[in-house]
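[Q] Does anyone have a clean structure-token version of this?
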Amino acid sequence: MSRFFEVIRNIFSIPELRRRVLFTFGILAAFRFGSYVPLLGVDLKALAAMMKSSEDPGATGRLLGWLSVFSGGAFSNMSILSLGIMPYISASIIFQLLTKVVPRLEAIAKEGPSGTRKIANWTRLSTIPICLVQAIFLVKYLGSSQGNQMAGGELVPDPGFFSFYIPGVLALLAGTMIVMWLGDNITEHGIGNGASVLIMTGIVGRMPQAYLEIQAGIRSNSMGIETPIILFLLYALVVVAIVFTTQAQRRIPVQHAKHMKGRRMYGGQKHYLPLRVNQAGVMPVIFASSIMVLPNMVCTAIGWQTGREIFSRMGFIYSTMYLALVFFFTFFWTALFFQPNEMSNNLKEYGSFVPGIRPGRKTAEHLEHVMTRVTLVGATFLCLIALLPDLVAQLLNVDRIITSFLGGTGILIVVGVGLDMMQKIESYLLMRQYEGFMKKGRIRGRR
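[A] Here you go.
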């Protein structure tokens, strides 16, 4: 514990790092304040009743819970920041995919900082139409009879075109632009990736609600005293497992060829090519969750009750399709961003080679062979994390709002962003010759 306080003291003793940390906290405070400013014309009591439906296993409930996570918790209050960073993330994902598919964009991305700035500007501009579409659908849903039915009353007492729809869409668009600006400022002047930090803040901000649910369960005798202990141990175990898997690497030995310059011999050193076990990160779970919302929504729209039961959460068909999608997107995302042929050509150009493997095509095949097996481990782990909240909620008979922190996108984002921020802070500390969070050396990936 004394070491922790020593690290905190070291952080605030470095002027630049202190300024970045305080700036990040200031931006997060402004973001949390904005998440409590509601849209004009929304009945907050009816909204609270509607958000109760996010605990429902149906499609609309899952969609509301999913939106609440990625809006940083602002969706739960139906604030002007309800769409949060989601449109910007959608635009970023689209351009990440396009840079791997469109040769012109790939060439621009390889131009260096100037190309990166161009794509970043295009991403921001494309955020506007995406945000407008999402805002129109959200405002339309709030003023519809379905929204009023879920709220148990009139969610919007006066759903007029000029009194609610137009101001609501403009307010949501302005809110997304503000959140995007806050995220860019954290990335540039603060600590960590701004968009990820804002999402993490909203997820962590929901923990007190889960704590209150546990207390209410203990008071009403619907939950035994052993249940919170089991949940805490499971949470600690899941965090350790995610940290281990996130940092885990498969290191490929790389030998540099020797060459003479004058009378001196250079090269001949041995290095490692790290291949991450969880190369795709949280993206497969996000894609799979968003797609699995659609079947139940279609069944609800056409009134097919049997279909709703088939695609209900924790059903056999739902779980099978969910796991299959997580596996597919894990391999798809890894194949899209891991290019063994390009890596093999780069090694060959710099005179490097994998011991025992011929340069060129054989090296590319070896890298792809290893990465396929490593990705299989990462995909299996993501499947376990994705299903864990539902399994624990069913086995322990507790509310899913309590078990939602044990798996899914939330815990992956929180742990991933936390590790990224720790590594950035530690790099500042080591640069100024202070000890970091680890007693010996830096935070490293595992072999």
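[Q] Thanks! Anything notable?
[A] The first strand starts at residue 249 and ends at 256.
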